[in-house]
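input
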Amino acid sequence: VACPTLGYVNGTEANAVTPVTGISWSDNGAPTNTFEVYNGASTPYAGTGYLDIYRESGGASTLSGNFTQQTSDKVIAEYRFRLQTTGSVFAFQSYLADGTDRIGGMLVLNDGTVQVSDKDSFGSNIGVTLTIGDGQWHLARLEYVPGSSTISLSIDGSTPGTIATGFAGNPSNLNFRDVQLGAWYLLDEVSI
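output
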């Protein structure tokens, strides 16, 4: 499945770029929020670009990586992320969706606790706690079989945690949210 790889993007604003490999991202939400692509050499991973997501003001926005809707087999979404600062409750949120409804994904709470989440963003701890602001990149792996009732999440090769999704959908989007004021994270090497 074609999907954006942030290491190979051109441009400066996420809602105006098309990756060299994959398809375009879309920014759905408040225009005052920051979804910027940086093309410096500060990322240790493939390519030279990474995505900087920071909610300074305004309402929450969603950055969607769109791909061909999957109705069979297993969908595996992987991405590297680095937590810079946290909001009042959440530091990070991502999830698979079918274009209109959430299926499930990942939450990181403001204390660094990682949760696999259902469609309504209710989470279950997976036994991993990250240190926010330590400069470390982490690898997230979401696995979901289209039409099924559970999604799983592992971080840096941890034992996967699972949760009932509450919605058995066919994914076509991998979304990242700037859900909390003050929350700031970096994103790279997104693949489906």
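quick obs: Confidence is low (pLDDT under 50) at residues 1-24, 30-34, 37-48.
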